[in-house]
Design brief:
GO terms for molecular function: ribosomal large subunit binding. This protein is of the alpha+beta class. The protein has helices at 3-27, 76-85, 108-145, 151-184; strands at 42-45, 48-51, 56-62, 65-70, 93-95, 98-102. It has two domains: 3-27 and 107-184, Orthogonal Bundle (Topoisomerase I, Chain A, domain 4), CATH 1.10.132.20; 35-102, 2-Layer Sandwich (Gyrase A, domain 2). The chain has a four-stranded antiparallel sheet, covered by helices on one side. α1 (3-27) packs antiparallel against α3, α1 (3-27) packs parallel to α4 (151-184) and α3 (108-145) runs antiparallel to α4 (151-184).
Amino acid sequence: MSLADVKKNAQDKMAKSIDTLKGDLAKVRTGRAHTGILDHIMVDYYGSPTALPQVANLTLIDARTIGVQPWEKKMLNVIEKAIRESDLGLNPASVGDIIRVPTPALTEERRKEMVKLVKSEAEDAKVAVRNIRRDANEQLKKMVKDKTASEDDERRAQDEVQKLTDKFVAEIDKLVVEKEKEIMTV
């Protein structure tokens, strides 16, 4: 493994950490409805737990209402029950062959809790990025010990890994600021 491979590997892993954070932040509920908040709900589909988007069509009816249209009519009650029992605090209602899921407006207290959750997710992402930096630096030290790289090359590579780390941490901070603004907007 070369110095460039170590840096590239670290950069790829850090990018995956950012992608994971983006996915986690998408699940955090803001005042507006979006179908992504229902993605992780599991429904009992013929005895096996299945993700809701795989058994129903999710659409936005309006800014605060999600429409869930099951592929099979007999899944209507099962899906409605799964949404009601989820940890999202939503109260779905069947209207014909579609389930309407209104997303209630968030209280100020709930918004602050959501901001804390977002900051917690961001801190986890920063820890992941720093762990990747640590692993990359250990690989670089091992290369010097094995005499496959010089100490000067190691120092330069460590500086570049640190710059990568700083760049990704700044991106995490930017994502948090955007999400916080989105949550606190009434």
